[in-house]
Specification:
237 residues, alpha/beta, Rossmann fold, seven-stranded parallel beta sheet, 8 helices, 45% helix, globular
Length: 237
């Protein structure tokens, strides 16, 4: 793995994804982000992508690699959605759309990224999961299933491509200060905080720091790992 690479961060136009993209850029990597609507972040290469569509993923990679002047050798699969509902009321569409975006999207992007990585004989695949994937939460059976499955995906990639200089790891954030946590009712926020040993929500930059490490040379012998960034909430789940 060279000191700097070419990174693609899916869903990198806001929140955790944007913090990751900016952190990778600060580390000297050339960075592109995917987004579905609006405008790309200032100072970063932006490519439109719908991760549930293979043709859109292929086109986004082709554009990113053209604008970054070479194959993507760092993939951060961050794009994800939630459609919360109690199990008995959850529709097929609410389940399928979340799994197809969060898990299927990561699969499609990893599959496409490995084409260039195999030729280069190096690569970093970093899948953004969630503490919920292993901890579980009521009303999030679809989301938890999709995020838990990323562990199996990363570990299978590790066994398949580890000999080619490609690593695949999972970062599992806990409750992070974003627009979503800001909108929580005060009683819900207090309940969540009481369950976190660190006594606070995390910052997007703290998730980005873990990703930045896994994308670098110092993490060459780490693969198939799940790195929690959750203030102790999951405690090894």
């Amino acid at each position: 793995m060279s000191a700097t690479g070419r990174a693609l961060v899916t869903g990198g136009n806001r929140g955790i994804g944007l913090a990751i993209a900016r952190s990778l850029a600060e580390a000297g990597h050339a960075v592109a982000v995917t987004y579905r609507s609006g405008e790309p972040p200032e100072g970063l290469v932006g490519v439109r992508c719908e991760v549930t569509d293979t043709a859109s993923v292929d086109a986004a990679f082709a554009e990113a690699e053209q604008r970054l002047e070479g194959p993507v050798d760092i993939l951060v699969a961050n794009a994800g959605i939630t459609r919360d509902q109690l199990l008995m009321r959850m529709s097929d569409d609410e389940y399928d759309s979340v799994v197809d975006t969060n898990l299927g999207g990561a699969f499609r992007c990893a599959r496409r990224a490995t084409k260039g990585m195999i030729r280069l004989r190096r690569g970093r695949i970093i899948l953004i999961s969630s503490v919920v994937g292993l901890y579980g939460l009521p009303g999030q059976a679809n989301y938890a299933a999709s995020k838990s499955a990323l562990v199996g995906l990363a570990r299978s990639i590790s066994r398949e491509l580890g000999g080619r200089g490609i690593t695949a790891n999972v970062v599992a954030p806990g409750f992070i200060e974003t627009d979503m946590t800001d909108a929580l009712p005060p009683d819900r926020k207090e309940a969540y905080l009481a369950a976190i040993p660190a006594g606070r929500f995390g910052a997007t930059q703290e998730v980005a720091a873990a990703v930045r490490f896994l994308a670098g040379e110092d993490a060459a012998y780490i693969t198939g790992a799940v790195i929690p960034v959750d203030g102790g909430l999951g405690m090894g789940h």
